[in-house]
Amino acid sequence: MSAGHGASGSILRQPKAVWAVAFSCVIAFMGIGLVDPILPAIAASLQATPTETELLFTSYLLVTGLAMLATSWVSSRIGAKKTLLIGLGLIVVFAAAAGLSQNVESVIGFRAGWGLGNALFISTALATIVGAAAGGSGSAIILYEAALGLGIAIGPLLGGLLGHLSWRGPFFGTAALMAIGFVAIVVFLKDDPTTDAATRPEPTRLSAPLRALRQPALAVLAGAALFYNIGFFVLLAYSPFPLGFDAMGLGLTFFGWGVALAITSVFVAPLLTARMPRTRVLWIALPLLAVDLAVAGIVIDDPALLVTCIVAGGLVLGVLNTVLTECVMEATDLQRSVASSAYSAVRFLGGAIAPPAAAELARLISPEAPYYAAAGSVIVALAVVVIGHRALRRVDGPAEPAAVEAESIAVGDAA
To answer: Is 300 left (phi over 0), alpha (psi -120 to 50) or beta?
Structure first.
């Protein structure tokens, strides 16, 4: 991602429109881990079981994934600014509604609406930044990556800080920050050109992402990502329960996880892919993640060692997120936004399934069972990549220019 970014000017010298979208990106990405530190508090306050509480992730990710299939269809018809504002508006409304909820079923439902808004916003944000940035696409990409990393890292920390006061705090905090982002985009981002046929967005077919999955390479990568994401979200969504920390302790733990993920995503992954084929990076990183998850199951009764496994897992997850997304962009000749939408829709299914399944495994078998199951799921992802290696030969070719690679991140890193 960062490799080859040659900004022709200072990244800090950007139009106000770019900063408005980048700020909103940080808040949107915070939504990934925001509820993590308050899961035990929600379970206690609303008298919900761990499985019911984990559905906060499921509803959010399931709707986000399904909505990804239609976001390119929407934005190509109404334009980027309107799509961004609709997405932000939905997040504001549903985050506030979640904070006002009196039972866990309502929170689950409002998180689903939040996921719809997030899909619309995130899938459009990077293209907007690239189009409005000064100093070339390199500066825009670095700025977007910084927003991604900040959001993933700050989300759990803010959730812990506000959740320490009340489990409702993170929801109201997100609504307030997103409302500021909404106003900033209204004020600073220019309206989309609609009168000139040459600049009007070319409509995308609604069925395009589903048709894209007929491509063998994309099908292999989407299948691998589905099983990989199970491991990702067991580590993220289930771990607060065996850790037993308060909201602040969980916030700090997953802040460390997010920082580790951001560092390897932005800096380490490009170094690895510059020195070896992308598929080889996957063959190395997936077994490392499986081992980390298995060790987490072994040391589950030692909080310090479990925290170490969580942060170490973040290091591997950052590499895998970036490399898998790059592979998707190189695998076919499809329009990149379409390929990313198809891939993300499938992989989010893994994220939607994992949290409640983990809670049920812990209830029915043992607390460490979810980690062992997640490790097995990651091994399945490895097997899919290895068995389908012939379909993936193209992804090991030369890297695309930074501007092309960046187009993938808008959807590929949305979750």
So the answer is: alpha
Alpha-carbon Rg for the chain in angstroms: 20
Per residue in 223-279, pLDDT tens? 999 999 999 999 998 999 999 898 889 999 999 998 998 888 878 988 998 899 999
pTM here is: 0.82
If residue 21 lies in a helix (H) or strand (E), which one and from where to where?
A: helix 16-30
- Which residues in the chain come in under a pLDDT of 50? 1-9, 137-138, 195-197, 401-415
DSSP state at residue 202: P
Q: What is the 3 state secondary structure string of 76-96?
A: HHHCHHHHHHHHHHHHHHHHH
C-beta of residue 90 within 8 angstroms of C-beta of residue 120 = yes
CA distance linking residue 271 with residue 353, whole number of Å? 32
Alpha carbon distance, N-terminus to C-terminus of the chain: 17
Residue 394: DSSP 8-state:
G
* Nearest Cα to Cα of residue 247 among 34, 27, 38, 93: 38
Q: Return the half-sphere exposure (C-beta side, CA atoms, 13 A cut-off) of residue 322.
A: 30
Distance in angstroms (rounded) separating the CA atoms of residues 31 and 45? 21
